[in-house]
Amino acid sequence: MRVLFLMAGLVLALAVPAFAQQPDPQQPAPSQEAQDPDRPVSFEEQLVVTASRTDQQLVNAPASVSLITNETLQSTPGTNVGDLLRAVPGINITQLSARDINLTTRGATSTLATSQLALVDGRSVYLDFFGMVMWDLVPSQTNEIKQIEVIRGPASAVWGANAMSGVVNVITMSPRELAATGAGSSFTIGAGFFDRDATGDDNGTGALFYVNGTHAEAVNDRWSYKISAGYFGQDALPRPTGTIDNAFNTPYPTYQNSGTKQPKFDARVDYEMENSGRLVFSGGVAGTEGMIYSGIGPFDIDSGSTLTYVSGRYEKNGRRIGFFTNILNGDAVNLLSRDITGAFLPLGFDTTTFDVDASEVRAIGTRHALTYGGNFRYNAFDITIAPDGDNRSEGGAFIQDEIFLNDRFRWVVGTRLDKFSSIDNWVLSPRTTLMYKPSPNQTVRASFNRAFRAPSFINNNLSVTLLNQANLSAISPALSQFVFPFRAVGNPDLDQETMTAYELGYTGVLGRRATVQAAVYWNHTDDAIFFTQAASYTPANPPVTWPPQIPTFVIGLIPPPGLPSLFTYQNLGTVNDKGIELGVEGVVNRYVNAVVNYSYQADPDVEGFDPSETNFPANNRFNIGFNFNYDRYLGNFMVSYTGDAYWQDVLDQRFAGTTDAFTLVNVGFGVKFAQDRMVTTVKINNLLNSEVQQHIFGDIIKRQVVGELKYGF
Asked: C or N: which end of the chain has fewer Cβ atoms within 10 Å?
């Protein structure tokens, strides 16, 4: 409750001066005010597109939306998407390695987070074979990003499968917009170091380096283009040592950890048509290497693993017709799980996705804004650990009507229907939101959503035999390091996960100086998909490696669930999540913006299976900070607190455990030169140099210091 009172006080602190400075009738009209450089930035003009697939003011969105602008991105000291999004309320972020980042809204995240859809300019970068997002393969430089929109809550009604817990949409500047900034050509170089001395292990200092270049040009009133290239490299983070704090006291495995190298290239060409339409063609390639964590242990992705994409779209007013293809290929090797030969498990992945989509927004009379469309997608898979399948197709269509009942009330109602070749039945995702607007810049929402996640290709088709090791010395000293095989298989009969969500929310823009948001939500997920033990060895069916000198009847003495012989994916039961989100972002003055938010997530209430089978998110998250831009100086200061969390999603219960609460203090400070064309910046993450572990199996993150030079010409 103390936190809630603190939040209320901070909201009032920003809101009171906002109301105090509202223009009275004697002040200039808004069009005249816009020419006054001393006027604070207006929050009421912020537009978002992801909530309903159409441009609308943030305050009118039928869902909880967080908006991260280009100005915020430029001053943020973060060097990856986790750092950029950590200050968003309600979103749980874990960084497990130099390159492996996972995020989930309004629920526990995990390795290979599966329920959060990710888009770049509306193009899905969700990888269907594992059901995840590899954020380091998003081929966009920070200075090209116009804004990032985060939908906090289900969005399958317009975006389809896998937008179950929310959507992150990275929206980039067009070539013409980028050229108009005065820095259409830019060059950025950064280098830094980070502490790698963790408890029990002296690793010295690690290094990181990045370089990016962009050129955008409007050739004439029809043609414009942009090209960009970049590289990011970082040494490995330190691994935890000692034992995991659980009943098993399992030692942390020792293996050679890896850093990452990430080259990128991206290009886009726009053509402005005579009929006011626009053709957009883009393509790019992004490479990666380094650690990615999974339910069967960490994989080390080889150099040369890439995601290549090509896309095209036609836009005119509210009409959009597009296509894209994503081609992912690479190789990796598991550093913990061994196959039946005793060699570390190899993974080869080669996937190709083809997608076509169309949507349109149309006004009907003066009271209806109709949005409708659909898509079809085909995936081709060649995955070494899933040899029994090679393709999957999916398609769906949606329709949504925003009904303007009167000046105070609006009603959004819509639905989407999807069909997957891997799911027996059609999937319906309805949505309705009733919005009450006491004033044009305030909205109170009550909403109902149903969304779903389709089983991934691996969920359906995994097929490997692995070796496991158990300490059975309590039964016999000869079994202290007993090695035995087990099967890990997919389940082709899985149903989709289905979330039914309810929300009460408020969004308001106060005096054009502050955006205030509050939400209470209840999420009910049925048929939750988990990787779980499905069978055990018995005295009548012992492991082939069982020592002949030990009677097999002792296998029956092993406590439940026994010595595992089979793991698979199952629809286990129901997970109930609920929480509260409070936040305010405001203009303190023309030089300083401030943000503060608080998120409470209750422990999940599970039905139909043991709670130890699921992750538990941090109950409390709190962010407070500000950024400033004064004369030649700019900077950012952010404090982020995350409570303790429980993890069980790597291998079995021997590797489950709880991470400690942590606080990150991140600071950035920059100076502009050469008529603002050159900016030098120092960025410090984890200023207090705490040992932060964001997942029980993840790396240790300590202080990172980066110096950056950016030049625009």
From this structure: N
